[in-house]
Amino acid sequence: MKKITLIIAVLLSAVMMAQVTNEGKPLSWDFSTDVKVDQISLLPIDLNTLMQEDAINDHLQGIPYRVGVPIEAHYNIHNSGTWTTLDNGDKIWRIAINSPGAVQMSVNFDQFYMPKGAKLYLHNESKSDLLGAYTSVQNQDSGVLGTWFVKGDKLWIEYYEPQNVVGLGKLSIENIIHCYRFGDEHQSKQKLNQSGDCNHDVDCPIGADWEDYKEINKRTVAFLNMGNGYICTGGLVNNTANDGTPYFLTANHCYSGSNPASWSMRFRWISPNPICAQTTNSTQGPTYMTISGTTLRAKNAATDFCLVELNSNPPSGWDLDLAGWDKTDTTPDFVVGIHHPSGDIMKICRDDTGVIKKYNAGAQTWEITTAGGGWELGVTEGGSSGSPLFDDLGRVVGQLFGGQAACNGTNDNGLYDYYGRFGVSWDGSSSSTRLKDWLDPLSLEPDYIDSYSTAIGIAESFSDKVSIYPNPTEGMLTIALKNFSGKYLYTITSILGQQVISGALTQPNSSINLSHLNEGVYLIEIADSKGANSLIRKIIINK
């Protein structure tokens, strides 16, 4: 049977919406037209000054990694671009924006509203890199939206508006992020600031005692674009309701100077051909799972944490997980980090010599010590800020604040890193400065919880067969199965995954006596004897 602490699929299925599926293509790609599209060139950036600043700032603590600069644009569907009306009354608006020398570009919209049926796409000149469709699902209360990056120095934007909603859309560009360095790309052509050769791609061996945890936790981590030219890393985290709420943990210093509504992130950017502390470049991953828009929930400089909530759920087909966590503040046997250094593909690092609790840069932290030789495998770099620190049981215990760890060729330099401590972040003066109000909505106060998978769905035909009532119950629970055939098994666990009762269902209507259990929330899994069909539901005991 599946681990119930990983899933409550029925709760997820009711709220799952795709935000950016990267499906479809701009309508204009399917027809030829002689219409001349408005093309705009932005002023060039001062690359030399930026590189001089980066040479200093990249070594400072508590500053996120800069990859680009915002350039004010203020172009909208009324004052620029080119409209084309199609024979059926539908309309498309297009604009091309050139930022000389950019290796990638992203867009911040200060007005974004897609009426039902409207679509927005962004792509490069060669049509080899495409974002969208952005649809009404991306509409936010703030009316803003930030996008992921598109490769190249010429960005095309195309807005499609069906005839029945003509004039209802809103689209205004606040600025363009001119990205001058990204992974191993650099506008100077010198390939500066790429992640060091001692890094290990996330699919490199990490140790047999952590391989299973790695498979889960690499699906929680995302490369974060804050919409202001800076990047970080962070990860999805579970809550005690196990309801799939997409909370995302990163660093407080990543939040500074940004608007979470404009944040965007890329999940599962993983090399299909892992490179493990070698000079060979990693193969760039084929997946393009990007999502935009978050809402701030809590932050605190005392442990340098920031918790946001994605404004809609990632598609279930992305096969993401929400990481478990441990709030006991107990020193782990060893720790593992997963991150995106210097805007590079996902990497992993491990320290076996023991973290210590230490006050660093004004925050309560876990320190990977210089005395212990730093990381035993891999390192972190700029861009890794906010990335989760996992304990030996695969649970989050912190997020990266800073440090001096770096590569020295294919070896690390043996220096320290430090992470804000999850256990300290748990409490605070108010819900806006602590984690517990968001990650423990049921007020269960567990020491730890395990991960949750968004990928497990329920076979609809099987779900339709099963009724569970009354719920809440005072003690007696009835399970009714339509078109009953064969044998079915059930398992009931506590919200923390501890099995409390199990058995077989051998008739269409079966009653289970739960009166001996304490009041609270439990999970029931029902499966056929072959394991081909199953479902999980939440039950509540109120006496």
Q: Brief description of this entry?
A:
This protein is mostly beta strands and 543 residues long.
Break the fold down into its secondary structure elements and pairings:
Blueprint: H1 9-13, E1 39-41, H2 47-57, E2 65-66, E3 68-76, E4 82-85, E5 91-98, E6 104-113, E7 119-124, E8 130-134, E9 145-146, E10 150-151, E11 154-161, E12 170-179, E13 181-182, E14 185-186, E15 200-201, H3 211-217, E16 221-225, E17 230-237, E18 247-251, H4 252-255, E19 264-267, E20 289-292, E21 294-300, E22 305-310, E23 321-322, E24 325-326, E25 335-339, E26 347-351, E27 356-360, E28 363-368, E29 388-390, E30 396-403, E31 407-408, E32 411-412, E33 417-421, H5 422-425, H6 436-439, E34 448-449, E35 452-453, H7 460-465, E36 466-469, E37 476-481, E38 488-494, E39 499-505, E40 509-513, E41 520-528, E42 534-541
Parallel strand pairs: 1-5
Antiparallel strand pairs: 2-17, 3-12, 4-5, 5-11, 6-9, 6-10, 6-12, 7-8, 7-11, 13-14, 15-26, 16-17, 16-19, 17-18, 18-22, 19-20, 21-22, 23-35, 24-34, 25-26, 25-29, 27-28, 28-33, 29-30, 30-33, 31-32, 36-37, 37-40, 38-39, 38-41, 41-42
